[in-house]
Structure formats: structure tokens, C-alpha cells
Design goal:
- The structure is a single chain.
- This protein is mostly helical.
- Helices cover about 55% and strands about 5% of the residues.
- Helix 2 runs antiparallel to helix 3.
- The protein is elongated and about 55 Å long.
- This is DUF805 domain-containing protein.
Amino acid sequence: MLKYIFISWLNGYKNIFNYQGRERRSAFGWFLLTNLLIFILLIKVYIDQDAEQYTTIKLCLLISYLFITFFAMIAYNVRRFHDANQSGLCCLFYLLSVPITVIVSVFLSPHYGDNIYGPDPKKPIIVNKQLIIN
């Protein structure tokens, strides 16, 4: 389970500029939850009173993390909308209402089977007589 959470989180950054294909609802949820926990940890480090001399470095780290995560979340969210057989252009609402778009994409029911955006991410793949689960 922990491996799946880490892979889901890492997949968001690995595919930061990939706006094609599909993503599972659980992977997107774990990506959001993991980023929330990391963000809370970075805020705690930034607020820490013991290391005031590194305030600028900590602030730059926090802003960089937020900036990179924002773009990874948009790409992940586009793929999540594709899983529900919706256009990824719905993510343009990110600029207007990020929380609403994220909540909607978490609860979108998937389109079972293949669709125009790609194969079903939950469907097992068989390569060289070995079962690979996405």
C-alpha cells in the first residue's frame, strides 16, 4: 500500500507535462493527500522559531514546491478528467476555482473500459505472459 502511495505521488511529478492518457481516482487522491502532508510539513519548518536565519531559503523552498505542485496537479487533473471521459479543458477552471475543480475530479466516476483518451488504467496488462497491474 505504501509503495502504491509513493508511486502515485511520484507519478504526478514524473508526468508533469503529460496531458494525455488517464489516471485512476485512487492515485489522484493519494497524490493530493501526500502533497497536503508535505505542504503542512514545509509550513511547520517555515514557522519553526529555532532556525530564523534560514527564513529566505525556507520561503523559496515553500514557494518552489507550491509552484511545481500546481503544474503537476493540473496535468494529473486533466488525466483524471480523461478517465471520466471528459475533456481536459475543464481544468481551465483551475484558474478560477481550484478547490471546486479538485473536489469534482476526486468524485468523478470513471468510464469503465477504453475510451477516446486511452485504455482503462485499472485493466491489467499482460506482457510476455506476465501480469502487470497499473
